[in-house]
Amino acid sequence: MSLKTKIDPNKLPKHVAVIMDGNGRWAKGQGFKRVFGHKRGVDAVRQTVEAATEIGVEALTLFAFSTENWKRPKFEVDTLMSLLVSSLKKEIPTFQKNNIKVQAIGNLEKLPNNAKKQLMEVIELTKNNSNLTLTLALNYGSREEIVNATKIISKKIVNNELKIEEIDENIINSHLYTFTLPVVDFLIRTSGEKRISNFLLWQIAYAELYFTNVLWPDFNKEDFYEAILNYQSRERRFGKISEQVENSNK
Ligand code: IPE
Ligand code: IPE
Ligand code: MG
Prior knowledge:
Blueprint (H helix, E strand, L loop, with lengths): L14 E5 L3 H7 L4 H22 L3 E8 L7 H24 L3 E5 L7 H14 L6 E8 L1 H17 L10 H6 L11 E4 L18 E4 L9 H12 L9 H8 L1
Parallel strand pairs: 1-2, 1-5, 2-4, 3-4, 5-6
The structure holds 3-methylbut-3-enyl trihydrogen diphosphate (2 copies) and magnesium ion (MG).
């Protein structure tokens, strides 16, 4: 029986973020070149998107390419970019059928032109969809995002559009790439690595963290449900004590 049946629909994380890691190791382990792992990783993306849609998660954010990933061999970077273009194109009917709204975060200007074009097309086509918001983090780095936000805020101050005294957490939040998204409740990282790798540093301030040894190409719906069940077993206290949290749940 699927673990899905055990999930409490009233205790779902609104926003799940995933560091999809382990494609290269998966491929090496099977005797293939690293890039084959990325190709198989696309299947895991589909499984995860479907699983999140089925249980009713509002927002799913996937770390697909970091600001640091440009340092990889050119062949690997080129393969990742062309996989992005082909997968986005191929998945359009699925996005439409499942009412999925696609968006992207990161410094998108630096993406190759064909990737940018395909991405913008999918974003435009799905913008009125209202089921799951699927956000792809592409050329995304949390530090870059914070630098970018700081520049925009500074310009507003210089132009007298904003006063220094008005800067608060909401102002910072609304200048991040993620400004339309709810805070991250749950962060999943596959492949056994226990680090954040410059992903959503501000946004995960109070997220529950989940690390699994499963390599990304092997990650499937049941793995996602297992992660969600683990999330539901936790007590999120947000600085309070247990009794206060229990009372507020009653
Ligand atoms: C994650 O898998 C995919 C991207 C970072 C684009 P990796 O390619 O990092 O796989 P490992 O960590 O080398 O196994
Ligand atoms: C993080 O994975 C980036 C993505 C999943 C896109 P990496 O494999 O690049 O992370 P590090 O370098 O091992 O920390
Ligand atoms: Mg990796």
